[in-house]
Amino acid sequence: MTELRIVSAQGEDLGRYIDLLEEVADWLEIRGIKQWRPGNFRLSADYYAESIKQKEVQLAFVADELVGTLRLLLREPIVWPEVVEDDALYVHTLAVRRAWAKHWLGRRMLEWAGDRAASLGRRYVRLDCVANNRFLREYYGEAGFEERGEIEARFPAPVGTLRLLRYEKPVRAQRATAQQALAAGGADASLKRRG
Fold first, then answer.
1. What is the pLDDT of residue 173?
2. Among 92, 28, 95, 90, residue whose Cα is nearest residue 68
3. For a 10 Å CB count at each end of the chain, is N or C smaller?
4. How far apart are CA 69 and CA 60, in angstroms?
């Protein structure tokens, strides 16, 4: 059984966090998937350093190996400007190191985000992808997310304006487990692969 441990990133994690995102951006680019532009994460290092400081960046480990990441936001006014209620947790920059792609880690990180949302009293997990990204559209649909429309999202440079498709998934009732107690604390959480 592969144990997945998810922890909040620390300041000293910035370099390996950016390296992981750039690795996945390169992989996407080579395959013609236009989700992330290689080099943008390095150009935005100060932004991501602040995101780490705000405890938004979560790192996923198997043993001591960094295998994935996601950012959790409590508000997302650029992609969801019409939402005024604090009813969701927003997932950004979900990434899995390619060597670990066949281990369901992305799905498990999304489940963890749903558990985290429940622990915070949020009703939904929301995320998005570039509207013409068929790979992620299929992936999010298979993970139980429902389409919630497209938007022209205007991000600061170097990202710029992107046509995004938005997704939403209701949070299931929180499971009463020791992992949930850890997730609610936000410092460290573990999930074991379910058979």
1. 57
2. 95
3. C
4. 6
Strands 124-130 and 88-96 turn out to be parallel
Backbone angles phi, psi at 50, to 5 degrees: -70, -40
Which are the contacts of 186, defined by CB distance < 8 A and separation ≥ 6?
8, 55, 116
Terminus-to-terminus CA distance in the chain, angstroms?
9
**DSSP string of 125-173?**
EEEEEETT-HHHHHHHHHTT-EEEEEEEEEPPTTT-EEEEEEEEEEPPP
> Which segments of the chain are extended strands (E)?
3-8, 57-62, 65-73, 88-96, 124-130, 146-154, 161-170, 188-192
d(CA 94, CA 24): 10
> For a pLDDT cut of 70, what percent of the chain falls above it?
88
Q: Which residues pair with 168 in a beta bridge?
A: 126, 146
CATH code, 3-174:
3.40.630.30
What is the reported pLDDT for 102? 86
